[in-house]
Every structure is written in structure tokens, then in C-alpha cells.
């Protein structure tokens, strides 16, 4: 059900947030957001966003101001799908990156507003496939941690009921990384899953060395072992002994996932980067057609709705990227999370903190 209604006002803010200690495997210490708010004639509003781990969102904000926001001001929500393709065609010569980030933010805001107007949680408007989603712990493992700290973080997730945890490799020598993963496996036993993420840091030779050793340790998947642009290298890795390969957080749009069909069975789209909720649904359909599964990247407060509505979804990732800007974070109970039963995506921003870190606004 897509409710109609016209967008009357648009608002854009650019947010810069220091992260303090480096987060996850990327080592990011700064978060930039563009946050788009669409308000209709009845006063209902929806928010969407895109982000960068570091600089870059000022460029997305400039494109939003020039092209995307004028395109949605006065737009009937029922016509967004057609407008989205027009925006894509109109920015074709700019490539995929910045235009898709801008479209993602608007698309998420449109879907949020559609769900608010319908009086439904987003996952129910999209078509709920499940009421809750299993969650793995990903936010308590960095390369800077000692092995003892890595084990402690994994055990804390286990003690809170998480059925699996993610570790990072690719900064330490390969043999050291295997020692660290093995230490966590010994501490957790065989009942808790371990995922391993290389954050595209490896070359093919190193990945080929690591992969069979990760198989011996019972690793659930081997994520982003090499840069995603090297599809042939992924194919070579997949042909040997390896945990299932996972790719997707750096893939923007449906077309970039297509070459991995039959190569990587686990796809990890990030809706605020990959084209928003509309494109996420297309990626889910492609995954279903090829027997792949989806586990969204980061952002559990948004992705819990997509994990509950996507046909191929399996896991949700617990990673505290936005926590410092939220008034309410997602509750995980016994390793599972339920989408909030309030209209829209239900993300509750801390308005004061958001304002404090806003460096630019556009109103219209």
C-alpha cells in the first residue's frame, strides 16, 4: 500500500560527528551525515540519511540542494518511483557514487513518510516476512585490541545472548590474525558463530592462505577479503577451500551486486549508500533469484526493518555507528531484535546533539 500525499517542505542538514576512538575495521574517527526531512501538507514528516566514514558528504549535500530537493518539493509520494529513475538518468554521466548517496537519503525519507502516513511501521508497509531478526555482535573488535581484549569483547557478546560475533583481520601479519581468531574460538567454544571481516585489506595470495585456516576454525563467513572491484579474484578464492564469501558494503546499486551471483553467497547492502530502501528491495529480489542471502551492513535502527521484510535476510549487524546521535537505540534481547511498532522507520534522533554537530542547513 503506497499512500499519496504531496511533499510541501524539504530540509537538509550536514552533520559532522567525531567518533573518538577508531571504530571497527575501517579505523574511522569521523562520521559525516546528510539528513533529509520531507514534510507534507498535513504536517507529517519522514527522515532519510546517507553518510561517510570521513569527509565527502558536502558533495552529496551540494547535489541534493541543486537537483534532488527541487525534484521532490511538491512531489506526490505515489510518484517517487518514477522520479527516482528520472534522477538516476539525469545524473548518469556523474557516475554512481555521490548521486546514489543523495538518492539514498531522499528515498529513505520518502519511505519513512509513506509509512507514517499509512500509520504503519516501515517493515509492515514493506511486507513483513518475520517479526524479529537474529543479531550478531560486531562493535567490540578492532585491530588495536590485544588478543585478551578481543576475547573479552567476544565473551561479553556471548554473555548478553548474541549467537555470533564478528572479528577483523588484515592489519596484523596473517599468522597473528589466525592466532587471534583461534583464541576467540577457544574462549567461545563451538556454539557461538564467528564471522571474519578483512575490510578489503588483503591481496588474493594472502586471502588464499587465510581461507582454509578459517575453515578449520569453523568461521561462518569470510567478509570482504579483497577489494570488491576484483571480481575475478573473488571467483578464484571461492573455487578453493574457504568459508562462504560475503560482499556488499562497498557495492553501490543493483548492478554492482550482479557479478557476485554464484561467487559470494552472502550480500551486505547498506541502504543509505546503495540506493535507499527502493534499491535494497531490488537487491533482495536479485539475491533470491540467485540463491544468495542478505545481511545488511551497519545501522541496525534502520536495517532492522529491512531484515524483517527482505525475503533473503538472515542476520542483523550490531554496530554502534549512530548511537551518539540517537535518543533511543535498538533493543537486542537474547540475540534478536524486533522493529519498533511505531509508524515509519521509528529512528529517534537526539535533536539537540544533531543540532550541535550540524555544520550546514538548507530549507525550502
Question: What keyword list fits this structure?
Answer:
364 residues, alpha/beta, Enolase-like, domain 1, TIM Barrel, 2 domains, 6-stranded parallel β-sheet, 4-stranded antiparallel β-sheet, 13 helices, 14 strands, globular, magnesium, Mandelate racemase/muconate lactonizing enzyme family protein
Structural class: alpha/beta
CATH class of the largest domain: Alpha Beta
Major sheet strand order: 5-6-7-8-9-10
Total E-strand runs: 14
Count of structural domains: 2
CATH architectural name of the largest domain: Alpha-Beta Barrel
Strand content: 15-25%
Mean pLDDT metric: 95
The CATH homologous superfamily of the largest domain is termed: Enolase-like C-terminal domain
Amino acid at each position: 500500500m503506497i499512500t499519496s500525499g504531496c511533499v510541501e517542505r524539504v530540509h537538509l542538514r550536514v552533520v559532522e560527528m567525531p567518533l573518538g576512538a577508531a571504530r571497527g575495521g575501517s579505523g574511522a574517527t569521523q562520521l559525516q551525515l546528510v539528513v533529509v526531512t520531507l514534510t507534507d501538507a498535513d504536517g507529517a514528516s519522514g527522515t532519510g540519511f546517507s553518510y561517510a566514514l570521513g569527509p565527502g558528504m558536502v558533495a552529496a549535500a551540494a547535489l541534493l540542494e541543486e537537483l534532488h530537493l527541487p525534484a521532490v518539493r511538491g512531489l506526490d509520494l505515489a510518484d517517487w518511483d518514477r522520479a527516482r529513475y528520472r534522477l538516476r538518468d539525469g545524473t548518469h554521466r556523474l557516475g554512481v557514487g555521490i548521486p546514489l548517496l543523495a538518492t539514498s537519503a531522499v528515498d529513505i525519507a520518502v519511505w519513512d513518510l509513506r509509512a507514517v502516513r499509512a500509520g504503519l511501521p516501515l517493515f509492515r508497509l514493506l511486507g513483513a516476512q518475520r517479526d524479529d531478526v537474529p543479531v550478531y555482535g560486531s562493535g567490540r573488535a578492532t585491530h588495536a585490541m590485544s588478543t585478551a581484549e578481543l576475547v573479552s569483547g567476544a565473551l561479553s557478546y556471548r554473555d548478553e545472548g548474541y549467537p555470533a560475533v564478528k572479528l577483523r583481520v588484515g592489519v596484523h601479519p596473517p599468522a597473528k590474525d589466525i592466532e587471534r581468531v583461534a583464541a576467540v574460538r577457544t574462549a567461545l567454544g563451538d556454539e557461538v558463530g564467528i564471522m571474519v571481516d578483512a575490510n578489503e585489506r588483503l591481496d588474493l595470495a594472502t586471502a588464499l592462505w587465510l581461507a582454509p585456516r578459517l575453515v578449520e576454525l569453523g568461521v561462518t563467513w569470510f567478509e570482504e577479503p579483497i577489494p570488491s572491484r576484483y571480481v575475478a579474484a573473488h571467483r578464484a578464492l571461492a573455487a578453493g577451500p574457504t568459508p562462504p564469501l560475503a560482499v556488499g558494503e562497498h557495492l553501490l546499486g543493483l548492478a554492482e551486486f550482479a557479478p557476485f551471483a554464484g561467487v559470494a553467497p552472502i550480500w551486505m547492502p547498506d541502504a543509505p549508500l546503495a540506493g535507499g530502501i527502493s534499491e535494497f528491495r531490488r537487491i533482495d529480489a536479485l539475491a533470491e533469484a540467485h540463491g544468495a542471502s542478505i545481511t545488511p551492513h551497519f545501522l541496525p535502527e534502520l536495517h532492522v526493518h529491512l531484515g524483517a521484510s527482505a525475503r533473503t535476510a538472515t542476520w542483523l549487524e550490531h554496530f554502534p555507528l549512530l548511537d551518539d546521535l540517537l535518543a533511543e537505540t535498538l533493543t537486542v534481547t537474547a540475540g534478536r531484535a524486533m522493529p519498533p511498532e511505531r509508524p515509519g522507520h521509528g529512528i529517534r534522533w537526539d535533536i539537540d546533539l544533531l543540532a550541535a554537530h550540524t555544520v550546514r542547513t538548507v530549507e525550502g
